[in-house]
Specification:
This protein has 75 residues and is mainly α. The protein has three helices and two strands. It has helices at residues 26-34, 39-45, 51-67; strands at residues 6-7, 18-19. Strands 1-2 form a two-stranded antiparallel sheet. Helix 1 (26-34) crosses helix 3. The chain is globular, with a radius of gyration of 13 Å.
Length: 75
């Protein structure tokens, strides 16, 4: 998987995965989508982003979720 819009820089947001070196983390984008915001709404919040940035943030998050097994405990 090639993700060229996700960057890591220890001097930007503590090295968290960000969008194109900006101070917008993958987690922020995924959180907005998870809370029910549409791509268009995310782009209103961050007008300097592009649709491809959101898509790649989601792809990265899905890849990471698949790579890291988190134990699930039913309530």
């Amino acid at each position: 998987m090639e993700l060229n819009r996700i960057t890591f820089d220890p001097n930007v947001m503590g090295g968290k995965p960000c969008i194109r070196g900006m101070r917008v983390t993958v987690g922020a984008i995924v959180g907005l989508i998870a809370s029910g915001k549409s791509f268009d709404e995310v782009l209103e919040f961050y007008p300097y982003l592009e649709v491809e940035d959101i898509s790649e943030a989601l792809a990265y998050a899905a890849w990471r979720a698949d790579e890291i097994e988190i134990p699930f405990q039913a309530a």
